[in-house]
């Protein structure tokens, strides 16, 4: 923009006669101005000079015309309408002509303005998210404005002027009642301009204390429980925490306002650590932990103790129950309270201590109680066990009972035999609480050493051994002796019997007692000693006796034997008997024939104690030499031989002799017959005996001699006869045979 001015100067140089410029003077018609209200007018003048051209400078910058800046005609005036604070200059005017130039003294303007751009600064600054100041803070409000001359200030709080007139208002030790609208008023007494600005300051007391407490009753299971968060200071809201976790309220955990939280119904699982945290605009504060313990019970009370104890001992009962707080316990026995406290120690027990012990658990918070009982069985220790016989001594086949005598409380009794446990079988009964062992029918096999052991749960004792020996008998009495003895000898009888204890023996003969003791010795025997000897065995425990007898046969020696015929003669086919005549005691008689022992057959009978030999029908074949032999156990004797010849006949009579005789001649007939002894013959002819001999000799034959000749044979022993006949024919000289 230098060209226009250059051109002006050139024109001046070309068109005017020039004078040097001197004494360039700048004037303003006023320098103390009010911004925007006033117009500044500068006039530039020279003392001498022609062909002048002007240039205006604001500081070092050339002033150019604008809507507010006007250059007068000839440019020697400068008008600034509605001066601003930026128009203070210093202004100079520069005058040039072709030969010289000149510059005025600078002239400045004093433009007064403001207050404008009033701002207020609050220290400390409110950070984002915060809306209030904590009570007690120092808050400084500082106002500043652009103003010339300097502005003066006034402060108002909620419209009320404060005394403060500095640009700063310092709020010391702030209180909540200082919350309100703060305004600062800036005033320029030259421009007579005001400016104000305000801000809202909120001061909140910090929360100074928070405590969490129960409100009302202690927490009891299933009931309603209220926690109260006591806050000192203004509170905007409260957070509830369980174990550090924020609780989102629901139907069970709910708030009724006024800083309470209700838990209804409360559960055991709600026994946790609770906190409340109170918030306001300037602070938050957390309570101490409230350790919530839900009270309940007493539930499931229980007694721990032995079930059983011995007299003299001390038992400790312990009662417990699920309970919060722990229950208080009382103990009752037989309807009276005997102790308090969870533990109850009995004194030394007696049998009277037996019974039911009751513990009452009481929870003084829930105000409930619960009862449990326990039975204590008191027993007396087993101090004695002894096997004893009850009733009679053991006798075989009888009932026998052992008893176990004990002292103390007996729960069970066990029996042992020879160290082995004994079990009941169908013969052995254990009865009366096992303290008797009963043998329904005691046997030898039951012998042994018996012990009983008595038990109770706390003690036991085993008896000394009792030796059972079953008494029995006498049984199977036996006499040992000779069966037979000879006269003059002495016999010893020995009696024995199976018996426990050993039997006593007595001896009887012929109805009289003859001895006592197991052995009996006879005197020298006579035949009168023959007979039955009886031994009576007596067991004085079983009170039984047993008798055995023995026949003693006393024999006299055999001194004579002889075979004799009894009765009639020996006749064939007839009955015939021989007898054996003896002296002495004969046990047996044997018959011999021809030295051979004879055995009975269907024909031969031996009878009369064998001393007769009977032939039912004696035969020839029975002929022989017979002996009898008599014997007893000690002697024998054989008889002399007896010759038996059987008599018989006559049999088969036979006539020998001719059948034909000549007259005048004699004929001899011979009659014979089988017979023993020899028989006698008689001859008969024509009804008359004609001869008595076996031989018959007719006289001289005649015709009359013709006929039947009869021979009669007669045995005078058998008294039988037998007849035979023969016809004799008689011929003359000439004989005609028939
Ligand atoms: C300056 O000039 C203006 C305009 O010509 C005039 O109104 C004003 O009164 C003058 N001021 C003084 C102090 O002369
Ligand atoms: C500025 O001008 C206004 C009106 O235009 C007037 O009221 C006011 O008083 C003036 N201020 C001063 C300081 O003269
Ligand atoms: C300059 O001019 C002013 C007024 O125009 C005058 O008062 C002053 O005496 C002059 N100075 C000189 C040296 O001429
Ligand atoms: C003003 O005059 C001085 C000497 O008197 C000269 O040196 C200077 O260059 C001149 N300035 C102008 C802008 O002509
Ligand atoms: C604010 O309260 C304090 C006491 O706390 C009192 O001294 C003061 O005058 C109160 N200020 C106002 C403005 O009410
Ligand atoms: C100031 O004004 C605020 C907001 O209008 C109000 O809350 C507060 O109570 C007032 N304070 C006083 C002291 O009047
Ligand atoms: C303006 O106020 C200042 C101080 O604040 C004072 O010295 C001066 O005299 C005042 N001027 C007027 C015109 O009131
Ligand atoms: C209620 O809230 C409590 C605590 O957060 C929680 O333990 C419980 O289960 C909730 N109950 C229901 C019904 O949601
Ligand atoms: C809690 O607030 C309820 C109303 O919301 C009121 O009825 C009750 O009295 C208050 N309880 C206490 C202890 O202030
Ligand atoms: C609680 O206050 C502490 C300072 O006391 C602050 O650090 C913390 O952020 C605050 N907590 C919340 C949730 O406002
Ligand atoms: C409950 O019993 C305990 C212990 O005996 C006692 O300290 C407490 O004071 C009792 N509480 C009540 C409510 O009786
Ligand atoms: C220095 C400063 O901030 N000046 C400002 C004053 O206010 C006006 C308008 O209100 C602004 O334009 C300025 O920049």
From TrEMBL:
Presence of the UniProt keyword Cytoplasm in the record: no
InterPro entries documented for this protein: Ig-like_dom (IPR007110), Ig-like_dom_sf (IPR036179), Ig-like_fold (IPR013783), Ig_sub (IPR003599), Ig_sub2 (IPR003598), IgSF_CEA-related (IPR052598), Immunoglobulin_dom (IPR013151)
SMART domains noted in UniProt: IG, IGc2
UniProt keyword terms in alphabetical order: Disulfide bond, Glycoprotein, Immunoglobulin domain, Signal
Extent of the signal sequence: 1-20
Keyword Signal on entry: yes
Protein name: Carcinoembryonic antigen-related cell adhesion molecule 5-like
Native species: Salvelinus namaycush
């Amino acid at each position: 923009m230098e060209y226009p001015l250059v051109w002006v100067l050139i024109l001046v140089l070309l068109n005017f006669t020039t004078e040097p410029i001197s004494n360039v003077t700048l004037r303003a018609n006023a320098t103390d101005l009010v911004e925007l209200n006033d117009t500044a007018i500068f006039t530039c003048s020279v003392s001498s000079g022609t062909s002048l051209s002007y240039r205006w400078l604001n500081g070092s910058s050339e002033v150019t015309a604008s809507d507010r800046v006007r250059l007068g005609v000839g440019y020697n005036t400068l008008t600034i309408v509605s001066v601003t604070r930026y128009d203070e200059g210093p202004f100079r005017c520069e005058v040039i002509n072709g030969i010289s130039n000149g510059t005025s003294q600078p002239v400045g303007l004093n433009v007064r303005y403001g207050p404008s751009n009033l701002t207020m600064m609050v220290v400390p600054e409110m950070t984002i998210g915060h809306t209030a100041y904590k009570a007690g803070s120092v808050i400084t409000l500082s106002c500043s404005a652009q103003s010339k001359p300097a502005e003066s200030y006034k402060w108002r709080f909620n419209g009320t002027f404060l005394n403060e007139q500095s640009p700063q208002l310092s709020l010391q030790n702030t209180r909540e009642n200082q919350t309100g609208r703060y305004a600062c008023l800036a005033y320029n007494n030259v421009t007579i301009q005001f400016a104000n600005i305000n801000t809202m300051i909120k001061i909140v007391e910090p929360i100074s204390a928070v405590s969490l407490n129960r409100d009302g009753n202690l927490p009891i299971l299933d009931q309603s429980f209220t926690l109260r968060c006591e806050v000192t200071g203004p509170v905007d809201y409260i957070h509830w925490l369980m174990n550090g976790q924020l609780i989102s309220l629901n139907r069970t955990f709910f708030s009724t306002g006024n800083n309470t939280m209700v838990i209804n119904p409360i559960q055991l699982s709600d026994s946790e650590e609770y906190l409340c945290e109170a918030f306001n605009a300037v602070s938050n504060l957390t309570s101490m932990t409230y350790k919530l313990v839900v009270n309940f019970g007493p539930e499931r009370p229980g007694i721990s103790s032995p079930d059983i104890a011995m007299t003299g001992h001390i038992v400790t009962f312990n009662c417990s129950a699920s309970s919060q707080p722990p229950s208080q316990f009382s103990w009752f026995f037989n309807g009276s309270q005997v102790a308090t406290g969870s533990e109850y120690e009995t004194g030394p027990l007696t049998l009277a201590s037996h019974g039911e012990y009751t513990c009452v658990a009481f929870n003084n918070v829930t105000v409930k109680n619960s009862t449990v009982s326990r039975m204590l069985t008191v027993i007396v220790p087993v101090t004695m066990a002894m096997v004893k016989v009850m009733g009679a001594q053991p006798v075989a086949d009888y009932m026998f009972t052992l008893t176990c005598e004990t002292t103390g409380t007996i729960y069970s009794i066990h029996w042992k035999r020879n160290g082995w446990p004994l079990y009941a079988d169908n013969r052995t009964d254990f009865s009366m609480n096992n303290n008797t062992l009963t043998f329904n029918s005691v046997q030898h096999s039951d012998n042994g050493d018996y012990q009983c052991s008595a038990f109770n749960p706390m003690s036991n004792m085993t008896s000394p051994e009792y030796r059972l020996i079953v008494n029995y008998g006498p049984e199977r009495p036996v006499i040992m002796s000779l069966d037979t003895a000879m006269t003059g000898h002495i016999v010893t009888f020995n009696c024995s019997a199976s018996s426990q204890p050993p039997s006593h023996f007595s001896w009887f003969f012929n109805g009289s007692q003859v001895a006592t003791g197991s052995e009996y010795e006879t005197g020298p025997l006579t035949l009168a000693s023959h007979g039955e000897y009886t031994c009576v065995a007596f067991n004085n425990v079983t009170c039984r006796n047993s008798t055995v007898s023995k026949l003693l046969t006393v024999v006299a020696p055999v001194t004579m034997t002889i075979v004799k015929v009894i009765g009639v003669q020996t006749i064939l086919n007839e009955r015939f008997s021989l007898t054996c005549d003896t002296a002495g005691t004969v046990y047996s008689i044997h018959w011999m024939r021809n030295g051979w022992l004879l055995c009975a057959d269907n024909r031969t009978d031996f009878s009369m104690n064998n001393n007769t030999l009977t032939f039912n029908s004696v035969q020839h074949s029975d002929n022989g030499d017979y002996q009898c032999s008599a014997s007893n156990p000690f002697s024998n004797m054989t008889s002399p031989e007896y010759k038996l010849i059987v008599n018989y006949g006559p049999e088969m009579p036979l006539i020998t002799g001719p059948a034909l005789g000549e007259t005048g001649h004699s004929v001899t007939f011979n009659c014979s017959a089988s017979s023993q002894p020899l028989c006698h013959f008689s001859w008969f002819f024509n009804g008359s005996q004609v001869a008595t001999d076996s031989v018959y000799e007719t006289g001289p034959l005649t015709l009359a001699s013709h006929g039947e000749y009869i021979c009669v044979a007669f045995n005078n022993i058998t008294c039988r006869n037998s007849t035979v006949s023969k016809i004799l024919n008689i011929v003359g000289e000439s004989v005609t045979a028939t």
